[in-house]
Structures are given as C-alpha cells and as structure tokens.
Amino acid sequence: MTNALPVWIYDGIPEHVDLNVVATTSVEGGYVLAMQLSNDTIRLAATRHPSKYITAWRYNVRRYSVPDVVRVLVSKPHLRYEAVKRGLAGKLSECKDADSDVYLLEVDALTQKAQEVFEAAGIANEH
Fold this sequence. Notes:
Elements: E1 10-12, H1 17-20, E2 31-37, E3 42-47, H2 50-64, E4 69-74, H3 81-91, H4 107-121
Antiparallel strand pairs: 1-4, 2-3, 2-4
C-alpha cells in the first residue's frame, strides 16, 4: 500500500484474530471482514464476533472441504457494518466469481476499494 491511512485494524493470520480484535456490542456495531482463502480468492463477511466467525469457517473447512482462511483483514467497527459490507461487495462486483460467493482479486486491490467505501461510510482509520 502507498502512504494512505491504514484501512484495516487487523491484517494477519486467522489464529491471532482473537488476540487482536474483540467482539463488539450491538451499540458499537460490527466489523467488515475480508478473508483471503487458500485458493487466493477473497470472501467478505460482516460480524460482531470476528473470532467466532473464523472459528466457524475453519470448522466448515474440515467438515466440507471448503478453502481454508490464510489471512484475515478486519475493518474498524461501524454501526451499519452490514451495509458497509454490501457497499464493498457492490464496489467489487466486477471481480465476483460467477459460481461462488468469492472475489477474484489481490489483497492490495481489495484494500484500495475498501478504503474508498470505508471513507464514504466515515470509518477510515486515522493514525
């Protein structure tokens, strides 16, 4: 990424999400998650409990042989986190895989689009 402000409050391995991101209350809103999967696709999610979401996904990896999560990116919390996720999904529509719920793009390209959506939603990180 260039000299832009950080877009994600967490960018790392799934095993450390629970050490770095706490669950939110309904008053605080929730997070937008971008999960890079082992097949180099991106899946978006909106949740108040990132650690539980990742744990559930990894359970499905073992049970249904879906691609595992290799990297997790988490936004700053926002009250309308599901609407923000839908906005990001709309921004990525040209990258959507026609046969599944994943996006075919690099993390850097995702981050650029996310920054635009997050700034419009008023959740760009300030450092």
